[in-house]
Amino acid sequence: MKTTRTRTVKGSSSQAPKFSLSKLLIYAPIALQVIGLLRRSQKTKRGKYIKARKRDRAFDFLLGQAERAVGGRRSRR
Questions:
Q1: DSSP, res 14
Q2: What is the mean pLDDT of residues 54-76?
Q3: In this structure, are residues 68 and 75 in contact, taking their beta carbons and an 8 Å threshold?
Q4: pLDDT tens for residues 2-28?
Q5: Segments of 1-77 assigned E as strands
Q6: pTM above 0.70, yes or no
Q7: Contacts of 59 (CB under 8 A, 6+ apart)
């Protein structure tokens, strides 16, 4: 009796991680909120009149832009 041949497709494995855009859209706002809370708590510990480091300012700017793009906190005018 002959054995049946099975075809395997190159590159697709059942164990490969499934990353989809829907997962990114679900978890990105949550991650941004958590990071924003951590940054705000660090700012309050630092004090009102102490200037932030250049790295911290850059990180805060990127975090603000990401929150705005996802629809997070609005900027005050």
A1: T
A2: 80
A3: yes
A4: 777 777 666 555 555 667 888 877 888
A5: none
A6: no
A7: 39
